[in-house]
Amino acid sequence: MSEKELIEEVKKIDLGYDFGEKKKKKKSKETKVTEEEPISSYIDGSGSTFIRGAIYPYEELLERVRRLILEHNPDLWGTKRYTLKPPQVVRVGSKKVAWMNFQEICNIMQRNADHVFQFVLSELGTEGSIAGDGQLVLKGKYGPKHIEVLLRKYIMEYVACSMCKSPNTRLERDSRTRLYTIVCAACGANRSVQNIKTGFHAVSRADRKKAKAV
């Protein structure tokens, strides 16, 4: 074997070293970037590593929020209960009834008595008047349960907050548009409500006849 052939054979042997000019490997460079900092830091130019905090279950976070609300503003969680007396209805003669604690219930609901009065007349499709002592006198025969159904509907439409269901609200009227708005004192939510329309009756004629027979 000549000297030239011997040199060529030696070059073919891999000794684990690179005796030629060192070249930067792309793979090693990318590996270095991955190890030192995430790719995202180079994309946004921040160059800082994002450290992820602890992960908490949803139920635990909700419980923490509940405790904070109960500590600083318990009304927002709906724990406060309001007591409303049932309507006291008695017969007046043979064709009328009197809602004895009408004014008292209006005060508890923080609603104008005339507004509640117009709602009751519209729903029943009857006539009536407010006496000097705060009683509501209605033409017809209506029992306490019948009046209670109307009272619950009034609370749902003109008292209760649609967001937190709190009855601690106020009814405001815009002097320009004449529209009513319910503003909640507990959560701050507000919603517009329809004006009471004369001639709209939620109670059918058959229901009124049934109530008069009581």
UniProtKB/TrEMBL annotation:
Note one Pfam family from the annotation: eIF-5_eIF-2B
Q: Which UniProt keywords apply?
A: Initiation factor, Protein biosynthesis
SMART domains for the chain:
eIF2B_5
Family of this protein: Belongs to the eIF-2-beta/eIF-5 family.
Q: Which organism is it from?
A: Cryptosporidium andersoni
Highest taxon listed in the record's lineage? Eukaryota
Give the residue range of the signal peptide.
none
Any one GO cellular component localisation term in the record: eukaryotic translation initiation factor 2 complex
* Annotated protein name in UniProt: Translation initiation factor beta subunit
Listed under GO biological process in this entry are: formation of translation preinitiation complex
Which SUPFAM superfamilies is this protein grouped with? Translation initiation factor 2 beta, aIF2beta, N-terminal domain, Zinc-binding domain of translation initiation factor 2 beta
Q: Which GO terms describe its molecular function?
A: mRNA binding; translation initiation factor activity; translation initiation factor binding
Cross-referenced InterPro entries? IF2/IF5, Transl_init_fac_IF2/IF5_dom, Transl_init_fac_IF2/IF5_N, Transl_init_fac_IF2/IF5_Zn-bd
Stretches assigned to the Translation initiation factor IF2/IF5 domain: 79-190
